[in-house]
Amino acid sequence: MSETATAMSGEPLPMPGAPFGRLLTAMVTPMTGDLAVDYDGAARLAEHLITQMRNDGLVISGTTGESPTTSDEEKERLLRAVVEAVGSRATVVAGVGTYDTAHSCELARRAERAGANALLVVTPYYSKPPQAGLVAHFTAVADATGLPVMVYDIPGRTGTPIATETLIQLAQHPRTVAVKDAKGDLGAASVVMNATGLAFYCGDDILNLPWLSVGACGFVSVHAHLVGDRLHEMIDAYLAGEVARALRLHRELLPVYTGMTRTQNVITTKAALAMLGLPAGPVRPPLVDATPAEAERLRADLVAGGVKLT
């Protein structure tokens, strides 16, 4: 894709660089009925997301991948299964962030050995470190391997937002190249994008289109499990200057956004994938599977959003 696109006015529309592709799914970790990781199912799901849902990349062992409840050995084997399945057709980003810097560095090194193309590093959670601690943590993980890093800012889960000044400082590291943002402060992010070369990816699906308008390069999406083809179409339309078409797609997807967030989205994603006959399986405790009533409500939302279910 070229570095500019033609807007409706005929003027070129700048296209932000996308180091990991424009659409990535934060992939679930399929499980068997006895709550073991389904590695074959993960490979099949990865293939579907690349070939049918137009994903440029996959994030493995992120929040949606139930990373708090998978072991280091399971994470590494899962990553190897996905890397083998997709080959060079997609960017594979390994989630390696924890609340322990040393452990995060070790997971990063294991991910590099397993063939990951990049790392997703979430803000350390629970301990709520100061900004100086965040700088030290992210720098240590970036120093641990030769892989590029996407910093994950999601204060609703971690308890600590990454400050604008901290992101600008982190951007000085040559391997810190992107931010997955689930903080939703488009103004603060605009300051960071203006001051650095960091690529921003929207990490909150309902804000996908607004993020494009301030310079985000793409999405790290949960809903792309189901509507990745239309999300990629939204990106393509917006960057081609077809803003009205992008807005139409955004509005058509509103029932999907609503349905997928009525409860914890790992739960809804696995329930939706089951409706499509795709590998998913149950969730691990402390999560619980969708109730029959929740599943039926989700089915209605997805159908209203144009998802064709089995």
Explain briefly what this protein structure is.
By secondary structure, the protein is of the alpha/beta class. The chain has 13 helices and ten strands. Strands 3-4-5-6-7-8-9-10 form an eight-stranded parallel barrel, surrounded by five helices. It has a two-stranded antiparallel ribbon with strand order 1-2.
Spell the H/E element sequence.
Answer: EEEHEHEHEHEHHEHEHEHHHHH
- Coarse structural class: alpha/beta
Q: Tally of extended strands?
A: 10
Strand order of the largest sheet: 3-4-5-6-7-8-9-10
Specify the number of helices.
13
Describe this structure in words.
- Helix 7 (186-195) links the parallel strand 8 (176-181) and strand 9 (199-202).
- With 310 residues, the chain is α/β, with parallel strands linked by helices.
- It has 13 helices and 10 strands.
- It has helices at 39-51, 72-86, 101-114, 131-144, 155-158, 164-170, 186-195, 208-213, 224-239, 243-252, 254-260, 265-275, 292-304; strands at residues 4-6, 12-14, 23-26, 57-60, 91-95, 118-122, 149-153, 176-181, 199-202, 218-221.
- The protein has an 8-stranded parallel β-barrel with strand order 3-4-5-6-7-8-9-10, surrounded by 5 helices. Strands 1-2 form a two-stranded antiparallel sheet.
